[in-house]
Amino acid sequence: MMKKTILAIITVVGFGLSAGPALAATLTLSPTSITVKAGQSFTVAVMVDPQGGKDSTIKTVLSFPADMLSVQAFTQNTGWLSLTQPGYDLTDNTNGKLVKTAGFPGGITNTTTFGTVNFLAKKSGSANIQVTAESLVYDNTNKNVLGSVLGQTVVTINPAATPTPTVTKAVTPAPTKVGGQVTASPTPTVSEEAGVLTPTPTPDTLSDSTTARLGAALTLGTNKWPVAVLVLAILAGLLAWLIWGLRRRKNNL
Questions:
Q1: Is 165 inside any structural domain?
Q2: pLDDT tens-digit series, residues 40-97
Q3: Exposed/middle/buried for residue 164 (C-beta within 10 Å: 0-12, 13-18, 19+)
Q4: Which domain holds residue 251?
């Protein structure tokens, strides 16, 4: 039964190509306008209105700017039987053309969704999706009844959103003291290009020069505090010996 139905539809399309329009059926697109961002996908529905007649076979031909849009998928609405023969089924993203043909057993008498097209917005600008005059609508007497109302959708494509850079907080190291010198911590600043905190060196050291020289002398340049203790002990012994000698000489006088 299915094969007979499809064969009948193909026959209708084949013999109806030369038939002139009798009733003004319409092929429109919904929505008629849409705003998206570059890189986003959106859908457009193809609608058929018999305008009081009974239509059974639809050939929809859409044109679109291939540099701005591309077809990702076409979904036929429930109840339609698609024709995939050459000339009746085409998705051409190079030249910006979509052709879809299908029949509805028993025909339609009310506004019906033919199918839905999923588009991808490729770059910013304004693009028109247009139902072309190559489209056809056949009624149950095999006559092309498509009128002059051919739908279109105006697509406004805005530039893609620019990602906001994240700011990474730098950890400020604690000051350290080496050899009597205090090393100052670097002050972090924000890099304008990357938005990342980077340390900016400050003066290397906050030094006490007197303390540094004394420490170096006491440790004999080794910076080892046990050596400083030993040196202080020797100096204390020498001082005590000198004081004892001076006192003894004074007593002898």
A1: no
A2: 999 999 999 999 999 999 999 999 999 999 999 999 999 999 999 999 999 999 999 9
A3: exposed
A4: 208-253
